[in-house]
DNA sequence: GTTCTTTAATGACATATGTCATCGTTTCAG
DNA sequence: CTGAAACGATGACATATGTCATTAAAGAAC
């Protein structure tokens, strides 16, 4: 269960962990299971945990005034899922986070964060996490404002084929910023080539 | 010149600076002036500096196959401008960065970064910078996939009125992900209410 | 297995945005 | 001051995407 988390920490920090730190990390991240469609966060709540996905698939989405869902993030094994703004600033979230498959998580509550950030390796890891997330969301933003819906879908297929396999089309569409009918037509267009 | 930088560092870290650190910071960030339309980074180059804007206005943009520009970031006084991915990973940038007004910068070269990251206050500050950038670009992404062009422009007017004042419409349009003609029509629509 | 729900495809039509061309105004270098 | 370039507004039309309705297939619950 914890191997994947330690592997992740190791990959993103060059500081080794002491055995005391390893023990405290075990206590700080606690396992939690979610069934498909169970939620980790409801809009309006403060996000109380940073979750590491050991197994399964999650998504983070907002709902607009017309009731349309907009998927801001998809995440599978070895990804983090959290509303970082809400978690860090303790402000109500505008997002929902839910499991799209039966999912095994390791949860770090906000309360434990301060202590564990004292560990250089953990601090290093979270810095890399924020850097990577910043770089990834900047790329996605550039795609969103500069590519056609077709190109965005082709990029997704190329770089994150698992997402396309594991989430239904209406969620993929809401991730790309288009309607499910449009995605369906893009796909039929691609299959005719 | 350096007051704004030190104020920024102070705001985003609760660790005080030693007088030795203050001296080294002075040496590490060097002043640079740019005239309007001079560039700090060309696509294809590796981004060699993180720049703090003391006075002026800059933009970061990509150019697609059809020659259309897409503005990924606008920045004015007290903002940072850098292609963080290129700067950290030393990979060629897909972006251009140019001055849109005569601009006064403080430049931190990649070479000096490693040393200066040893200072807790600086590390803290850069972490906050990445966190803030991540949160901001996630918000903007959510806007891009969930709001109409009109709403995106209204948000920009509300939260960053200086951008609208200091950059011409074709740049604002490329920041919003629309064409300048569309922005012009949105504006005339708003002014008739 | 049977039934209910979810997912996906598709046609007809509506709307938003892009494209291209034109024109007047503003800005700015010489 | 003057001419060129940049900027902004607008009309006519093209294209991409959204909306709504219908149908069929796949999957989940009982």
UniProtKB/TrEMBL annotation, chains A, B:
Protein name: Crp/Fnr family transcriptional regulator
Domain of life: Bacteria
Leader sequence segment: none
Pfam families: cNMP_binding (PF00027)
Cyclic nucleotide-binding domain sequence ranges: 32-118
